[in-house]
Specification:
Elements: E1 5-6, E2 16-17, E3 43-46, E4 55-59, E5 63-67, E6 75-76, E7 86-91, E8 101-105, H1 114-117, E9 131-134, E10 142-144, H2 146-149, E11 154-160, E12 169-174, E13 201-204, E14 212-213, E15 222-228, E16 231-239, E17 249-253, E18 261-264, E19 269-270, E20 273-274, E21 287-297, E22 303-313, E23 318-330, E24 338-340, E25 357-360, E26 367-371, E27 380-381, E28 386-391, E29 394-400, E30 411-412, E31 450-456
Antiparallel strand pairs: 1-2, 3-4, 4-5, 5-6, 7-8, 8-9, 9-10, 11-12, 12-13, 13-14, 15-16, 16-17, 17-18, 19-20, 21-22, 22-23, 23-24, 25-26, 26-31, 27-30, 28-29, 29-31
């Protein structure tokens, strides 16, 4: 067995790549390496039309990769593209060939926004060049939307209809994960910044040749975009506001993004309370709040919404907290909503706007899974790797993965900030994950796997 290859450009804590896998890396225009955080997996898109073991993943500065055998081997797909900073990914689930793939470029790793945009800075990301479109499962790509989407992070992306005669419809939701208050683009080296294009939801109906901002939505950052797995024309999106917390809202479209209507705003009734968390009273004299919404769709008309509250001290503009503040679930396309209990230790690293993952159980839509930046909890023996605890009327399941795969009956401490793609291994050590790693989080991180909490009605 050949030794693991080292990933260059990973700063002080270089990881090892899987044996036989070539590395991806990117450079800044000044020649400096931009790959000191290359491999955290930001987006995952299964492609069951290509086979049960087919999967696309994307990293903040490592490009798009694919596997056809459940993760045993991986292939880099975008090494020759203008940017390897991938912030979002989608596979058209309604394309029977499984060959329609789209990736949004942007800054999706941790760190302050200035670390990406100031002249000469290197580390966590590089060019924001719009969207990459492939109609042959990643064998080749077309760069689209650059003239409109450049200098915006595409935090959510979707593609539909490429296999139809009318061609591809592409949706791109833009906002800066590290700085949601930004509402317009600025040239990356201009200080002070100058006005540019508005962040928002952009749509193309001609294979990406032309993009225009959706006029049905407010002119504001769009923090989430998901499609209905059973309806090719239905999408959900969320809009934030840096100046008016009560303007936060979730919308639905039933015509592939052409028109939108609100399904959750400050007037929505949740458990007898109007507006849920969207209340002006959350902003105090010395503290301002902004809500960033993450969405997940599931079967049978289910939609979940995680509200991350970013609190800022208005005296010195420093961040006080960035954590999950509310979790809601609807099982009727957003007509009615229920509130779920919120775990208190999900975002102990205060990186909720970047590090929140949300999913609805595909077999039981009353269960929602949510993962954050670090879960600092008690050490559990491997034999109790799945602990169920009661929190009010809501059940939370804590999942822990031993740091060494549990080969010696060791314990797990979920303290790292790393993100990984993983699979169950049916080899000699049942349950041991095969982890695809690349790049680095922060010096001193232990790099252990943090798996989600589950909340149910």
């Amino acid at each position: 067995t050949p030794p693991p290859r080292r990933w260059p450009g990973a700063g002080r804590c270089t990881w090892s790549a899987p044996p036989g896998v070539s590395y991806s890396i990117d450079t800044l225009t000044n020649g400096a390496l931009a790959g000191t955080v290359t491999g955290a997996i930001q987006a995952i898109a299964p492609d069951t039309a290509l086979g049960r073991g087919s999967l696309f993943v994307a990293s903040p500065n490592g490009g798009v990769w694919s596997t056809g055998n459940g993760g045993s081997t991986w292939s880099p797909l975008t090494d020759r593209q203008a940017s390897l900073s991938i912030s979002s990914l989608d596979v058209d689930p309604f394309d029977a060939t499984g060959r329609s793939v789209v990736a949004g470029t942007g800054f999706a790793s941790n760190g302050s926004f200035d670390a990406f945009t100031l002249d000469g800075s290197a580390g966590r990301g590089t060019q924001r060049t719009g969207v990459l479109l492939s109609t042959n499962a990643g064998s080749s790509w077309t760069q689209v939307g650059t003239s409109v989407l450049a200098d915006q992070s595409v935090a959510g992306v979707a593609v539909r209809g490429c296999s139809q005669p009318r061609g591809c419809t592409i949706l791109a939701a833009t906002y800066e994960l590290q700085s949601p208050t930004i509402t317009q683009t600025t040239p990356p080296v201009t200080v002070p910044p100058t006005a540019g294009r508005d962040y928002g939801l952009y749509r193309s109906t001609d294979n990406g040749t032309n993009f225009s901002r959706v006029a049905d939505l407010p002119v504001a950052p769009v923090t989430a975009l998901v499609g209905d797995p059973a309806n090719a024309q239905r999408f959900y999106t969320a809009v934030t506001s840096a100046t008016d917390l009560t303007a936060t809202a979730v919308y639905v479209s039933n015509d592939t993004g052409a028109s939108w209507s609100k399904i959750f705003d400050r007037t929505t009734l949740v458990g007898g309370t109007t507006g849920g968390i969207i209340t002006a009273s959350r902003t105090g004299t010395d503290v301002s709040s902004q809500l960033v919404v993450h969405l997940a769709s599931g079967p049978n008309n289910s939609i979940a919404a995680a509200f991350i509250e970013i609190q800022t001290n208005t005296r010195d503009n420093t961040q006080k907290s960035n954590r999950l503040a509310a979790l809601y679930l609807s099982n009727d396309n957003g007509r009615t909503w229920s509130a779920l209990a919120v775990p208190s230790n999900l975002h102990t690293g205060d990186q909720g706007s970047v590090n929140t993952a949300l999913a609805i159980d595909p077999t039981d839509t009353s269960i929602v899974y949510v993962a954050g930046d670090a879960v600092k909890t008690t050490i559990l023996p491997v034999s109790r790797a799945r602990e169920v605890t009661g929190v009010g009327s809501t059940r939370f399941d804590r999942f822990h993965e031993p740091s060494n795969g549990g080969l010696d009956g060791s314990v797990s401490r979920a303290t790292g900030h790393q993100a990984h793609a993983f699979r169950g291994d049916s080899g000699p050590a049942p349950g041991r994950p095969s982890v695809v790693r690349g790049g680095c989080g922060h010096p001193g991180d232990v790099g252990q796997l943090v798996l989600p909490l589950a909340a149910s009605l």
